[in-house]
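Task: complex structure prediction.
Instruction: return structure tokens for all chains below.
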Amino acid sequence: MSLGVRVNGLRQAIRRDDVRSLSRRYFVANGFDGTLTSIGVVVGAYLSGVANGLAVVGIGLGAAVGLGTSGIWSVWEIERAEASLEQAELERSMLTSLDDTKLTRDLRNEQIVYSLAAASGPVIGVAVTLLPFLLEGVLFSMFQAVLVSIGLGIVLLGGVGAYLGAISQQRWFVAAARMGLAGIVVALISIFLPG
Amino acid sequence: MTLISMKPHEPSLVQFVERLSELDDVTGVTGKLVEIEEDVRTVRIAIEGEGLDLDVVDAEIADLSASIHSIDEVSCGDHVVDDPWISGR
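Output:
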């Protein structure tokens, strides 16, 4: 399959409401994981005495690689199993093989969209919260970088919460506060962890 | 040519008919929903065109994840022969 055909197929998949809905869930759920993990890593690194901003970035990127790979891998396998099941059920109903048809191509495109959404969520979450550490020693001290990082994480979570609240026609600021609160909780737990 | 096809719910009947209408030699296509089941739909497809190639139509329908159940009506030659039994006139 040529790249152009694949890109066109992915575009068509993204236009579908059901694909957008599930992609959004994967993106938000994994992005939530990534952001909270990063806040925990940042606080833990600072309290453990890591004195270099780039070292925190290195630790955080390790978490991003792990979470991104986990997202893309697990969702790929989950969606592959679901697609195979759906194809098998349809083949039973239609008494014919559906290999290499529009159905299987569409299912594969959906699989790619879901996997990318699941991987990009945590990578973005971690990357945003690590940004202040690139400016450690230039604009921020380590302590300030930690505070700005936690703040960015909370704003990111709140932004996603506001978006979810808006599309579900709930009060966006309540949804934003509920999501943002998770960032504060993780930061506090990390601070008061034994050791 | 009129045929009965079984297809999944997706692609929609609109997309299905559109794709068939884009085939070479096809001048018009009409699709009608006949029956909906849990996983599949049965549709009646009327295709018109000069020099229609059944193999091409069959391949396109297969690519749309559907299958031809039966070919119910075919007209060939220089003009359409009116069969009173079919047309009901």
